[in-house]
Design goal:
Blueprint (H helix, E strand, L loop, with lengths): L4 E3 L16 H4 L3 H17 L30 E6 L4 E2 L2 E4 L6 E5 L2 E6 L4 E5 L6 E6 L6 E4 L5 E4 L3 E6 L4 E7 L4 E7 L2 E6 L3 E6 L5 E7 L2 E3 L2 E2 L23 E5 L2 E5 L8 E6 L6 E6 L3 E7 L2 E6 L3 E6 L4 E7 L6 E5 L2 E6 L4 E6 L4 E7 L4 E7 L2 E6 L4
Antiparallel strand pairs: 1-4, 2-3, 2-4, 2-32, 5-6, 6-7, 7-8, 9-10, 10-11, 11-12, 13-14, 14-15, 15-16, 17-18, 19-20, 20-21, 21-22, 23-24, 24-25, 25-26, 27-28, 28-29, 29-30, 31-32
Length: 385
């Protein structure tokens, strides 16, 4: 597949070549011919790729100083790479569909969800070239790699398994209700569900264990327990009407889930035992939208940009770190914590040793997902108009 590149924020553009005008004496006889040639040149300039098969760069719009950033940007989504040594976005990004919504690192590749074409793209992290396009039958919503064999994809109401050795789908299973996000680890695959809250998928069979679901909250303080379902001790993040958990991560002997955020007020990270389904809420005083594990801690970010560092030994918030209002995701990797903020068009880097913000990196408007691994931090950005 061709190496399709798009310019990173701030990339320069070459000046157009201007054809010298013909002399007045020769201009009249060539009006018709010249017009046809000019028309053909315009068509070729638009349709033909430059540089031996590489499409012309598409300039993204850099973020403005406004807290609500909109701009006329590229007509294609992009995969951007941040160098953790310099905290800068690489000069070139790569086209990954109109609306990439998830990204994950593993098996020596970057994996990107392309909902517009119901597919997963496998990208070479060294060159940015798409190694494989793997079709699935529904729009992908999340990707999980690591902890169990395979690449796992949450789609509209299905879970798909991809063999990274063959780039082929080896399993598809209906989970019976809309999904949200997905994680792999602690011996299973974990998928958030709009009705049931959180489900466990057997990594060997691909089947959902319907006797393990963390129960859906019907109202504040009341829980549906059907067919042996384990139930959390309170509402998912304080708002049962918003459906599936917003974020889930597996590690440190537990599954950690953040519910769909309430409009305001406190919410919780739920620590769930992967064997029994019992759970413990860890409260934050603001709506949480994401959770990640790493550097011997659990990190939960709020929509207000505040990151709560949770001590897994005490199940308490040990530190609060501000990064700016509008955050949506947090990941841990490459010795740092990274917070994605589409509103500000930034990625914020936190040093887990000092709990301090050490860099704010501009990635432009339209950022949708983030992952850290393979020596870089990867950000997907949707097309915008």
């Amino acid at each position: 597949m061709p190496d399709r590149r798009v310019s990173a924020p701030g990339a320069p553009h070459a000046a157009p070549h201007v054809q010298p005008k013909p002399s007045r004496a020769s201009r009249r006889p060539l009006i018709a011919t010249g017009g046809l040639i000019l028309l053909a040149a315009i068509i070729l300039a638009v349709l033909l790729p430059r540089g031996g098969g590489t499409p012309a760069p598409v300039s993204p719009s850099p973020p403005s100083s406004s807290s609500s950033r909109t701009s006329s940007g590229p007509a294609t989504g992009a995969l951007l790479r941040i160098d953790p040594a310099t905290n800068k976005v690489a000069a070139q990004g790569y086209e990954v569909g109109q609306d990439p919504r998830a990204v994950a690192i593993g098996e020596g590749s970057v994996w990107v969800a392309d909902p517009g074409k119901n597919s997963i793209l496998r990208v070479d992290p060294a060159t940015g070239k798409v190694r494989a396009t793997i079709a699935i039958g529904q729009q992908p919503r999340g990707i999980a790699i690591g902890g169990v064999p395979g690449v796992w994809v949450a789609a509209i109401d299905q879970v798909w398994e991809i063999d990274p050795q063959t780039n082929r789908v080896v399993g598809m299973h209906n989970v019976g209700e809309p999904t949200g996000t997905i994680a792999a680890g602690e011996g299973s695959v974990w998928v958030t569900l709009v009705i049931s809250g959180l489900g466990r998928v057997d990594a060997t069979t691909g089947l959902r264990d319907r006797g393990f679901d963390v129960g859906m909250i019907l109202c504040s303080g009341c829980i549906a327990v059907r067919g042996g379902m384990r139930a959390v001790g309170g509402p998912w993040s304080g708002d049962h009407q918003r459906g599936a958990s917003q974020s889930v991560a597996a590690g440190l002997g537990s599954v950690w889930a953040v519910g769909a955020p309430p409009p305001s007020g406190p919410s919780s990270v739920w620590r769930i035992d992967p064997s029994t389904g019992s759970s413990i809420p860890i409260r934050a005083e603001f709506p949480l939208v994401g959770v990640a594990i790493g550097e011997k801690a659990v990190w939960a970010v709020g929509a207000n940009g505040v990151v709560a560092r949770i001590d897994p030994e005490t199940n308490e918030v040990a530190k609060l770190i501000g990064t700016g209002n509008g955050a949506t995701r947090v990941v841990v990797g490459l010795g740092a914590v990274w917070v994605l903020n589409p509103t500000l068009g930034t990625v914020t880097r936190i040093d887990p040793g000092t709990n301090a913000v050490v860099a704010t990196i501009e990635v432009g408007v339209g950022a949708t997902a983030i992952a850290a691994g393979g020596g870089s931090v990867w950000v997907t950005r949707t097309a915008h108009s």
